[in-house]
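To close the chapter, one final illustration. This time we ask the reader to focus less on the individual chains and more on the assembly as a whole: which components sit near each other, and how the overall shape emerges from the parts.
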Amino acid sequence: MIINHPYLGPRDAAEFVYLGDASLLERPDWQSEDAASEFHDYLHLRDNVAGEMRELWFHEQGDRSWLVVTRNTITHEVIKVEMARDVAQKISNGAAA
Amino acid sequence: MPNSSFKLEASSPLAGFSQDFGTVLVEELTNKALVSIAEPLGMKTKLQAEVKKHLGASWPEIGTTTNSPKAYHLLGLQTDMIFAFFDHPGGLADAAIKLMLKDNAYCTDQSDAWVIIKVSGEGIYAALERICPVNLSRDAFAVGTVQRTSMEHLGVIILKHAEDSFVLMGATSSAEDLLHAVTVSIKNTN
Amino acid sequence: MKQEFRIAESKVEKEPILHFSFNGKTYAGHKGDTLASALLANGVKMVGRSFKYHRPRGIFSCGSEEPNALVTLKTGQDVEPNTRATVIELYDGLEAHSQNHMGSLKYDLLAFNDILSPFLSAGFYYKTFMWPAAFWEKLYEPIIRRAAGLGALSGKEDPETYDKGFLHCDLLVIGSGSSGLMSALTAGRAGASVILADEDFLLGGRLHMEQMEIDGSSSSAWADKAIAELSSMPNVRIMPRTTIYGSYDHGIFGALERKTDHLKSSDGKPRQVLWRVYSKRSVLAAGATERSIAFGNNDRPGIMMAGAVRAYANRFGVGTGKDIAVFTNNDDGWHTARDLAAKGVNVKAIIDSRSHVNITAPEGVQTHLGTNVINTKGRHALSSITLSNGETLDVDCLAVSGGWSSNVHLTCHQRGKPQWNEQIASFVPGGELPVGMSVAGAANGSMTLASALQTGRDTTIEVLKDLGIKAIKKALPKVEDEASETSVFFHVESGKNRAWIDLQNDVTAKDVKQSHLEGYRSVEHLKRYTTLGMATDQGKTSNMLGLAVMADASGKTIPQTGTTMFRPPYTPVPIGALAGRSRGKEFRPTRKTPSHKWAKANGAEFVEAGNWLRAQWYTKPGESHWRESTDREALATRKSVGICDVTTLGKIDVQGKDAAEFLNKVYANAFGKLGVGKVRYGLMLREDGIVMDDGTAARMSDTHFVVTTTTANAVNVYRHMEFCRQCLWPQMDVSLISTTEQWAQFAVAGPNARKLLQKIVDKEHDISNDAFPFMACGEISVCGGTPARLFRISFSGELAYEIAVPTRYGNSMMSILIKAGEKFDAVPYGTEALGVMRIEKGHAAGNELCGTTTAQDLGLGRMVSKKKDSIGNTLSEREYLTRKDGLNLVGFKPVDESKSLQAGAHFITKESEPTMANDEGWMTSVCYSPNLGYSIGLGFINNGSNRIGETVTAADPLRGNTLDVEIVSAHFIDPEGERLRA
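The assembled structure is written out below.
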């Protein structure tokens, strides 16, 4: 597979390490009342998507960036690639607002 | 008072290896300094100005390099981190950079972490295409391009610093394996 | 050595003569021959025995689709079995042997299998090898497997080397026939970067195998001209002998280039190169493959594909017989008769299954329309054929054409589904093609030369437009029209005579029908039950026949029946090529520690720790057992001082205004208040509350920490910390970089550690106990100004330091530490002594941090802060993980001190049965303690902290080493920690 890095262009997937669903960006609040069950869901519950999925990939043999890759799990089409840090920043700004 | 009854001797990972393979010359570059310069959060503009002012080169975009008249080569390796590549001043290489950039940057000495191998000659493209997944054709990888990738399971920074001439940087601990990968590639293709 | 069947001028070079041997007999051939063409030129008809029935078989085709002519090349260590004679390029000295026979090829002792054939039909393996079970190892496996076999490997290491590589292009053109050449010319002239790959050594595909005209000259001459033009273009890379064997995601292709297979010796160069080709676009111009017709005894040597017979005459100048007949269901078979007649070969007859044709036979050739071949004769080679009209013809070669199938394989390696085209009686590419792929020429069903040239050009112009490259639309070369009508007819009912479908796996039309009767309705089931198309040729000439017979049996149409899935590789790829250089020591990189040279020169035995090589122990003269060395090192260290290279532990520079807060979140214990110049032990949890790793964090300044990880987890921890930084807390000001390789780090441990260090640390740095107490750290200098870092931490439980210098000084530093320690009898120690001392001290390591244990299990539960958010803290409080009687890490010693403990033993209460239900925990680490004089261990046992003094059984029934052990404190040495602080 080829992952089209937002800054480095097309790079072989062999340079990357896969983590999983990008929902891992949305870590629950440890002080929330249901923290234990929220963390349980955060860690263990995933949709097994046949189609478009947002995934976390680490460019370990590259610029060491974590990426959010939107990929079709059936066709392997890579639809969108974003810097995870930018996505996380938006999430954290949203939470603050 | 310095303790000088014992003297430490420096050795480079490949003991200054140099060999002419006909179409390719392979040389270990020694006494080079590599210092990472990372950007404190939200201080990009300030840091870039400081780098320009003190090192004499502009901040390189990721994947590119810039050079200064003061003989600093800046390598854009990450969006928020670059490497300064220059002749080793002795002692801790990051000290000199830290002195200039102060708390406008986070610097770390990387000089001893990397073996630096220069490969040059017209046979280098045929040799490197056996181990390097990145497209090194003249159109795709112009002089001044830098990338980090992996070759034979080794993490490598590859920099094209002149026509038909590349600098490869790999982990010191596996320096012999990187040299082996390069020389086997040359022997297999010349 | 007269080449009796060499007939005419061709693409082979007459001089010099090349000599080769087949089954020990020497023959002559030419450069440009394949082994097959040279054998045919010498009149060698029978080249092998079939897989199951050991039937005599001859050369069937002229390409990689060959089912029969599998031979073994070379001998001894160099032997290479199962190569196809039809693609082996002849060289002087080539040595080949036939395979799959016992005794000589002609009088194969295993040919009795053919007589037994009624018992060896479809599903034979499944039906026969079921029972009795005892027969499997003794009878079935050795005898039957041997009888039904291919060639044999040498069993020795392959002396050849292989390589891999990476190629990039705008356009990959697969196949160099008429459409491929047109495509490459169009793209090359437009300036695109082009790779043109073909499995053959002669580029041009069928242009060399036909007698056709292009622009007034022969098709072969036109191909040569096109190749010459392409060769002059710097933007075009021409790759003969290169098979594109697989199509993968996003325009990536696998290619196998045979570099030296056509040479007598590889001369130290890789024999083959496995390329990964990154293409922006691809044009598949793989052409078509001719398929056979099934009729009675259609497998004798001398029965060949009609297109191959024509190719041997046109390209290789070889007549495949003296008297040849053609059996066809389409016009193309007639072209074979035409070309052979033009070369003066005697064509006796054309037999066409169709009643009406619009094509004429060459003069003097009898034609039988609406007629089929129903049987053949000839024990070791064809001697006659019998026709459905009752006539018998004496021929030594029968050229068979069942029409041509588009080579759709590479279009199917992703999600492509071929579609049936009734007009050309072939499946053509359909469904979703691989990203960036277009198909041209016969591969796409354009079966005539004119249409192949046109689609080659037009497809490429579209592709270039897509790439934003401007193409010049040049006029197409002029060619004449050709007759190309065909029909759907693949099977002649042949009564008792077996009609062969898959020649390599010996599958007959009857087998296909039988499997249908037995209920195998899906084409995928048929394939697996009969093994049709599962041989090394993957049924390239036979699958169509199988489908037709199955469709017939089930009353369905061919498109309703469908094809089986095509998967890579297109043709076999040697395992050696897939491995490339990754053999032996080169399987993975080796990392050497900074003091490796010194250690090697001083008797070190090395152990692999991940990719690292670490000194395991140092053998002194007179020591003959590793325990002697290890015990000595551990004792000497505890008595005076020892030195160990600990560079392999991961080191990460953590800098930033939020560095302390960041570590507070990454580690389970608190870091916010750690003072500058202090080190703290850090425990890292996974988000699920299980321990991930441990290490230390040293605060070098307000904004700078140096974090260490275990050797094994260095990469994972760095990746995890980057995840935390970028994905979880992007608003934190923190920067990470690995410094594992930047610093050579040494543990200096033992009561004299400080005195030793004072000999090399520059005097302005006070490292006395007051100035530099336990858990202090700082930047210092040694040996007259060399910068260094000093950490007062201890894994051994002794007064100990870790001292780091830039890696370039590492080897020298090791020798200086030993020299400076001479007065104290300082010893270097390896990982074994390191292990002994940490077990004696009760420190957890990898065996204890095994991915299932918690901080509480390790006795570190109180470290997990409840006052802050950090990775894993919330879920570490799950009910089961915090149960009162959970596992505890404790020490163990054998009740009988002369006995040795064994890691992996499970604890049960005394006298109870060693069952899962009684399992109370397990032993994680053991060693012989030279300081205590007996075997000691660490392990987890339920509620262990409250059971000190109890005797339990360490059960190890697997290794027969069950013994009683006493639960003791994990701190065997200096439980109060007085030595650390000395």
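Helices of chain B lie at 44-55, 93-101, 124-128, 175-189. Chain B touches chain A at residues 62-63, 77-79, 133, 147-150, 155 (CB under 8 Å). With these observations in hand, you are ready for the problems at the end of the chapter.
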